[in-house]
Amino acid sequence: MIVNRRIGSEQPDEYDELEQHLSQKLNVPLNWPEDSGLTVSHVAEIAAAATCDTAYSQAANGHLIDLFAALPLPGTPEGQGFWKRIGDTGGDAALNIDPANMGGPFFDRIHGGNERGIAYRVLSFLEELTPSQRTAVAEVIGSVLDNGTIGVSGRYGGELWLRDAEMTAWRVALASRREFETAQDRERFFEAWRRA
């Protein structure tokens, strides 16, 4: 089922796919219960809004997992050498993403719905790298990506990995601030821009 819903753009007498789906699944009219403040149509709006935020965070975190999956696995002979080189070139900053410090439990938490743990570690790692360390780390990462499957090699591939990880982690961190935003905060934002 494709959800195509715009919150705040109600068109009377036109029901979207999610509303129709809920109505059919629950076998109730969209305005049921008639004397209640919360109808099936309202539930559809709430579900659509929650799904958008959750899906966005899950997609970004899934991409972070994909980025790490492109690197050698910890505990393998190739992985041990790779992660040692990351530690040597990245210095103390590399402790943020060292498998011994953020191993399985952090990735399991992403899978379980904790959207920020890995993102903040990636951002801390990249923020703490000096320019020369970042270049050296890019070379290490690029050397393992140069296996012909990705089509980008060397330091350039490593730089792309770092940029992608940085932007993906930033999107997760930025999206997580919405948890603390109220409807009044959002309305204050729109009102300020209307008056600007």
Short description:
The protein is 66% helix and 0% strand. The chain has 196 residues and is an all-alpha fold. Helix 2 packs antiparallel against helix 8, helix 6 packs across helix 8 and helix 7 crosses helix 8.
What series of H and E elements makes up the topology?
Answer: HHHHHHHHH
Strand element count: 0
Shape: elongated
Count of individual helical segments? 9
Q: How much β-strand is present in the residues? A: under 5%
- In terms of structural class, how would the helical and strand content be classed? mainly alpha
Q: Please give the alpha-carbon distance between the first and last residues.
A: 40 Å
The major beta sheet can be summarized as: none
Mean pLDDT: 77
Low-confidence stretches: 1-13
State Rg: 22 Å
> Into which percent range does the helicity of residues fall?
55-70%
Task: Outline the fold blueprint.
Blueprint: H1 17-26, H2 40-69, H3 77-90, H4 99-102, H5 104-111, H6 117-128, H7 131-145, H8 154-176, H9 183-195
